[in-house]
Design goal:
The protein has one domain: Sulfate adenylyltransferase (Roll). By secondary structure, the protein is of the alpha+beta class. α4 packs across α5. It has a 5-stranded mixed beta sheet. It starts with a helix and ends with a strand. It has 5 helices and 5 strands, in the order αβαβαββααβ.
């Protein structure tokens, strides 16, 4: 997989030399299962998915830094093959209960409704917290990360 990521990044750099000083960025897939991960990658490619929502708990639990505007990442499919490069444009820290319909629409999954967003994300957060004994709460902070797809271009 690493070779595919490096090749994808080099191809991007050939077309976008302004990033030539950057190292290979982090790469990951969305979600915790193959079907959803591949669907989300496809939604990014189609310019439908333009945001993601990770719990603050996850960042703290894994010792990861919070994303910030300007960050570059490679989105992969479930198998780890690169699909797109995204650039973070904005970060909002929002309690789960206060995530907006606009954000749910921007995230672009399912029917794009807030009802759908809350159902699938609550279930996801519960699964990711379960093995550590952490408990989902309506007031837990969600890192709402807005991004734009910068590669492949339209």
């Amino acid at each position: 997989m690493k070779t595919a990521i490096e090749k994808f990044w080099k191809q991007f750099l050939c077309e976008n030399p302004e990033y030539s000083r950057a190292d290979v960025p982090p790469y990951y897939y969305f979600c915790d299962n193959e079907k959803d991960a591949n669907e989300c990658a496809e939604l990014v490619l189609q310019d439908i998915k333009k945001a993601t929502a990770t719990s603050l708990w996850w960042f703290r639990h894994h010792g990861e830094e919070l994303p910030k505007a300007g960050d570059i990442s490679i989105v992969t499919n479930w198998e780890g093959y690169p699909q797109a490069i995204i650039k973070t444009t904005r970060i909002e820290k929002v309690p789960f209960a206060k995530v907006t319909p606009e954000f749910a629409r921007t995230e672009g999954e399912g029917d794009k409704s807030l009802k759908y967003w809350k159902e699938v994300h609550e279930a996801y957060y519960r699964r990711e917290m379960e093995e550590s004994g952490a408990v989902f709460q309506e007031d837990m902070i969600i890192i709402c990360e807005y991004f734009e797809k910068i590669y492949p271009s339209k």
